[in-house]
Design brief:
Blueprint: H1 4-27, H2 29-36, E1 38-39, E2 42-54, E3 57-70, E4 73-74, H3 79-105, H4 113-131, H5 143-152, H6 168-188, H7 190-215
Helix pairs in contact: 1-3, 1-4, 2-3, 3-4, 3-5, 6-7
Length: 221
């Protein structure tokens, strides 16, 4: 029976554990990037309007949906470079899972044991579907298939010739176009315009409350 505790566990998994595991997976690409160098690397967290951009991290409003790594080009392109680049996410998830599992098994990590058990589960889950060579959407290979083909043939063999990882510059251009279309839709749609106005008023109210709290004189003890 699905109860309240299961609902809480589902919310924690969807909004905390899975985003953390996916983010760490995407950060694994930085291992290969550090060895062979890539231009304009970026880790995008989630989708929708941008909340903020800090260095190579681009955080979106719906952070929990998915994340991805992008770059423009590899500076020292070779078979080994691609193998290391796509092995990074697998190694990071496996290292995360084995380390936490070791800490749990030896009683070193006792706080919130259920939380860490789920994190280990999802880390192994993503690593498993990265390791086993397979074709995914539109015939594109997963990381395991990319590594296998690079080791055996030295190149990709699938019919889909889209880049394995998106270009950061092209992704940024697509995002700007998407946000421009979104703003035009908001301005022309009365319901969305009212929602936007409510968000602005709510943000202004919060800012005013913070300002009053900041100006309030502190009492000395």
């Amino acid at each position: 029976m699905f109860g309240l505790s299961d609902l809480v566990s589902l919310i924690i998994s969807a909004f905390i554990i899975l985003p953390v595991v996916v983010f760490l997976r995407e950060s694994g690409y930085l291992l290969g990037s550090a060895l062979f160098g890539v231009s304009n690397p970026r880790i995008t967290l989630g989708s929708g309007p941008r909340l903020f951009k800090l260095g190579i991290f681009d955080v979106r409003r719906y952070y929990h949906l998915y994340s991805w790594f992008s770059y423009d080009e590899i500076r020292r392109e070779s078979r080994l470079a691609y193998i290391c680049l796509y092995a990074g996410p697998i190694l990071v998830n496996l290292a995360l899972a084995f380390v936490i599992n070791f800490l749990l098994a030896n009683g070193i990590l006792e706080w919130q044991k259920t939380f860490w058990d789920r994190l280990v589960f999802y880390a192994f889950y993503y690593a498993l579907f990265d390791i086993i060579p397979m074709r995914t959407t539109n015939g594109k290979p997963n990381n395991g298939m990319i590594i296998y083909e690079m080791l055996r043939y030295g190149r990709r063999t699938d019919y889909n010739h889209e880049p394995f990882l998106p270009s950061t510059s092209e992704s940024e251009e697509a995002y700007l176009q998407e946000m421009e279309a979104y703003r035009e839709n908001v301005n022309s749609n009365p319901i969305l315009r009212q929602k936007k106005e409510r968000r602005i008023r709510r943000a202004q109210s919060i800012k005013q409350v913070k300002e009053r709290v900041r100006r309030r004189p502190r009492t000395r003890k």
